[in-house]
Amino acid sequence: MNVFDKIKKTRTEPVNLIHGTDWWTDCDDVAALRLLLRAHRAGIIRLLGIGINSVMEYSAPSVSAFCEYDGVTVPIGVDKTALRDGKGCRYQELLAGYPHPVHSNEDCPEGWRLYRRLLAELDGKADITEVGFPQIIMQLLQSGPDEFSPLSGRELVKEKVNRLWLMAGKWDVSDGKEYNLSAYPVCSEAGDYLCRFSPVPITFIGHEVGTDVITGENVPEDDPLRRAFVTHGSKDGRCSWDPLTVLTAIINDEVQAGYGVVQGFARVDPATGGNNFMPDPDGPHRYVTQIHPGKWYADRINALL
Ligand SMILES: [Ca+2]
C-alpha cells in the first residue's frame, strides 16, 4: 500500500492546495507536480492552481501539457516580472510538445492575482506549497482589495490559508544559504518578508533533507516525467527537494511524513538570503529533520511517480 492509499483510508475531505514552482533549471519540480496530480486524481487533495515564478518561453505551455497528460486541467498564473534565461532549460520545450490548453504565458493571469481569486472563491481553507522562489506569496501578502475580495492580501491569507510549505533554506548550519532564498535579490527579500509578515505558520523543507533522496530513475521511458529527467541529464534520478516538500504538504503533517520537527522563529537576511533559526516551542515556523535513511523517503516517492 503506498502513501496515498493510506491517506485515503482516513481522510474525509481532500486538502485544498495551491502550488508554486520555478519549473526552471531543475527537473525535481516536474516530479513534485506529478505527485500533486496523482494526489488530486486519488481524491486526497484538490489542486486549485499553479503559480510559476520563473518565466521562459515554454513555461506555462509545458506546465499545462504536463497536467493534461495526467488528465487534470489546472488554472495557471505566472509572475510576469520574473523573466529568466532559458539557456540550459530543455525539458520545458520538450513537454510543450504534448497537447496543452494554455498556449502562452500571456494567456495566464499574474500569479498573485490567481492566488487572490482562488482564495476568495474558496469555501474553506487551502494550504500553499512553494518549491521555487517565494515572491508570488510576498506579492499576494502585499496586495490590496480588488474585484475578487475586499480583504487585503494578509487578511485574505489569514482567513483562507492554513499553512505555507516552502522548499527553502538550509537549516542544519547557522547562516545557511540555499538557492530559492538567494538566487535573486527578490528571493531574499521575499524570504525575509514571509518570515516577518506571514499571518499563517510556515514549514520549511531545507536543502539538507533532499540531497540524499534520489528518485525518478525507475519511471517508464515513454512517460513525459522520465523524458524530462533524461533531457535534464538526470537519467539515474535526481535529488528530491521539491517532491519531499509537496509530499509533506499532501500528507499534511511533518511527523506523519517521517520527519523530526524543530519549532521556532526563522529569519532570512534580505540582502544575502542567508537563513537562521531560533528554536522556541511557541514560534510560528518549523523546519524538518531527517530521521530515516535517504532511501526510506526515496522508496515512498518512487512508489507514487
Ligand atoms: Ca524548484
Descriptive notes:
With 305 residues, the protein is an alpha/beta fold. The chain has one domain (3-302): Inosine-uridine Nucleoside N-ribohydrolase, Chain A (Alpha-Beta Complex). Helix content is 36%, strand content 19%. The chain is built from twelve helices and eleven strands. The strands form two sheets. The protein has a nine-stranded mixed beta sheet with strand order 3-2-1-4-5-6-11-9-10, with helices on both faces. A hairpin with a 6-residue loop joins strand 9 and strand 10 (275-279). Helix 2 (28-41) packs parallel to helix 11, helix 6 crosses helix 7 (153-160) and helix 6 crosses helix 9. The radius of gyration is 18 Å and the shape is globular. The chain starts with a helix and ends with a helix. The mean pLDDT is 97. It binds calcium ion (CA).
Keyword list:
single chain; 305 residues; alpha/beta; Inosine-uridine Nucleoside N-ribohydrolase, Chain A; binds calcium ion
